[in-house]
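ERR on first pass: missing label on line 2. Operator R.T. fixed the label and resubmitted. Corrected input:
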Amino acid sequence: MNYQSNRMGQIPPYLFAEINKKKAAMIESGIDIIDLGIGDPDLPTPSHIVEKLMEEVQNPNNFKYPSFVGCVEFRQAVADFYARHYGVDLDPETEVLALIGSKEGIAHLIPTLIDPGDYVLIPDPSYPVYRMATLLANGQYYHMPLLKENNFEPDFSIIPPEIIERSKLMFLNYPGNPTAATVDIEFFKKAVDFARRYNIPIAHDSAYNMVTFSTYKAPSILEVEGSKDISVEFGSFSKTYNMTGLRIGYVVGNKQIIKALSVLKSNTDTGQFTPIQKAAAFALNSDQSCVENHNNIYKERMAAMLEGLESIGIKVDPPNASFFIWAPVPEGYTSTEFVTNVLEQTGVILTPGNAFGPSGEGYFRISLSVPNGRLYEAINRIKRNVQLKNNKKSATLSS
Ligand SMILES: *Cc1c(COP(=O)(O)O)cnc(C)c1O
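pass 2 clean. output:
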């Protein structure tokens, strides 16, 4: 008996499954695992946000069905943030929609815009949801390779005309997961030009927009003149304010797209719990020093890890944003081989690059979501125990 649709049958087995099985077995046998695989911040949600949430939970009115599109305070706070931070004007009534986490909106946008058989242009490597939600909508994806020599930007000029013709949506994501790549506004101008020429809506995923270091400021695609004609941008509270479990995000930009997505959503979910929306609005409206503090912590962790990697012969340019390091695997390994080797020899979990798409092969991702002590421990274990093929220097480091 096969109790699943053909559509579900297309969803490939989860690449993390094998690693997770191994992790469970190793924990069982008493091995101390350091998980640098998960992209979930370890730092707590700032206390002023938690206090606001608790206050709103005391109000019985907040236990009714929430507004389908998001409460007024939430949408206004997002519009104010765009005006203040990017100089972008948004109408909170028509150009801002609350989401149950940006993942929910990303997944629902695809059936909103594509019919079965249509193409979605997807960066490779990227967040797996773009790809899986396309398959769930009976769509097809075309991978735009992100190569280091192109600053991990897609080359629009190599997309075949017959694919362009059948494409109804393009995803972009900067600062990028898993690459940690960042762009300036010039790249978004190029992307919007391309999208307008071929009438392909852009969905820009800006989950890491505020996780940036030093003087780098991540631009919004909506800063590009005329981009609202063709673009929407997803935002999340998960990474900026360590609110992953609260499930709250937003989409802003093109009115028609937002209207269509809200019709789909109003027939699927009924919005996020109002106290969570109000706590998120409060997060945006409050002092932002918590964001800066978190970013300083990530920056410090990043420097420590980059130094650790360099000591075993892996060189990575310091990222401007995100809490990821996207590193090449040492010579002689595939991504899966290297990650498996490190896990077996050190108990440190890394993510193989090919989990994010075929162009991720040859890389691995480190998520800096553990405290410094654990990070140093992970680095030391790798230094001590990982014998790199074709690498005499590292072999002598091994104990
Ligand atoms: C974490 C993440 C998201 C999802 O964020 P939520 O708002 O928690 O759903 C979306 N896109 C990327 C690239 C992410 O890394």
